[in-house]
Amino acid sequence: MTIEPKIPYKIYLSEDEMPKNYYNVRADMKKKPAPLLNPGTLEPMTAEELGGVFCDELVQQELNNTDQLIPIPQDIRDFYKMYRPSPLVRAYCLEEKLGTPAKIYYKFEGNNTSGSHKLNSAIAQAYYAKKQGLKGVTTETGAGQWGTALSMACAYLDLDCKVYMVKVSYEQKPFRREVMRTYGASVTPSPSETTTVGRKILAEHPGTTGSLGCAISEAVETATSTEGYRYVLGSVLSQVLLHQSIIGQETMAAMDKYNIDPDIIIGCAGGGSNLGGLISPFMGRKLRGENDYRFIAVEPKSCPSLTRGQYVYDFCDTGKVCPLAKMYTLGSGFIPSPNHAGGLRYHGMSSIVSELYDEGLIEARSYEQTEVFEAAEEFARCEGILPAPESSHAIKAAIDEALKCKENGEEKTIVFGLTGTGYFDMVAYQQYNDKTMSDYIPTDDEIRDSLSGVPQFPGNETK
Ligand SMILES: Cc1ncc(COP(=O)(O)O)c(C=O)c1O
């Protein structure tokens, strides 16, 4: 008889057990994600074209559909040691509260000053920029987690960092802004008068409070017009999912130590980076026919790109200065209602996640924000961690799946990504506690309207 070892509340790996390679799920995908297209020629973007915007090494990673493992440079691994490996937590208290036979685990990525998983890719992108001898990088940030993470990475490597922050967040989250400035970044509310595209957007939409799509356009323009700068992005791109594969690899290593095999793996999905990173190695096993898992992507009902968008080529930004990506999209002109999960308010989705979803390998569902905050509070009260609104989408789905197990008497093992903490989201929690939080779900007409801006060319028609 084998005696099952008691699973600790937290499973920690040692520093030596941290992955030494990024895992590239595209290598195991039979049908590869569609390439980025040049919007002028509709031909796949070449390394040379991409090199004008992104760092050289990151361009290679973006285009690499074949190498399964990509070594993580020692300098990046040394930085990771400052806050990794992150714990895989058995949510014993939540299980007890729900009275479920399900076993619930979460991978906690909020244990660094940026408060989220974004630092995993920020340090990689900043490292390659530094290695190329660049002076600095530009980026956009919505809720502020990505901008904070990049500021931290740039401070460490002594790189300049220019952040365009969606205006509404800039005004609502002054402390996020100050954290970025403390790490030495310059933070500009977007849309701004500092770029041509910003001035155009302001002229067309006076008084707009901005969107991620606008901020991306401004950051790209600044990078391409400033000597020694490149643009970096916190999600959506395949290179970002590659860096985030460290989350899934650590999760798998921790579970393997105790012979645990999950049944269901859940992640919130904004641009798809944490979800993609968490599921990648498990998806690899599934794609290679070694094992089977259910994967669930969770998004807000106010910005339902997977559940209500269409799978076509679209612009990644509002100003239409970026390449075209094939993805589930609501249209690059889609301005989501002011949902508090700022990191999930993006019109599109990673092309890797989109392809896997289109092939039926990932499920997707959406929730209203009040039900998400209800789950967040339930989780905070028993597990102690105050979750980010984005992460709370995954919590809600994990709770729902655990309650289904209770109904059916099933002992499934559920893992979800707890991507960050919600200390800068207290206005949202206040609204929830005061019962003044509202839910806005776009109508079919609104989505059809914004999809009408999708570029039309043969094979790319929207339905
Ligand atoms: C805490 C947190 N979770 C999730 C997300 C969603 O991003 P992604 O889908 O790229 O993981 C964000 C984005 O800002 C975030 O800050």
TrEMBL record:
Lyase as UniProt keyword: yes
SUPFAM superfamilies, sorted: Tryptophan synthase beta subunit-like PLP-dependent enzymes
UniProt KW keywords: Amino-acid biosynthesis, Aromatic amino acid biosynthesis, Lyase, Pyridoxal phosphate, Tryptophan biosynthesis
Assembly information from the UniProt record: Tetramer of two alpha and two beta chains.
Name the UniProt record assigns to this protein: tryptophan synthase
Residue span of region Disordered: 443-463
GO cellular component term, pick one: cytoplasm
Lyase recorded as keyword: yes
Domain Tryptophan synthase beta chain-like PALP, first and last residues per copy: 83-420
EC number, as in UniProt: 4.2.1.20
Pfam (any one): PALP
Organism: Aminicella lysinilytica
EC top class named in words: lyase
Pathway terms, separated by semicolons: Amino-acid biosynthesis; L-tryptophan biosynthesis; L-tryptophan from chorismate: step 5/5
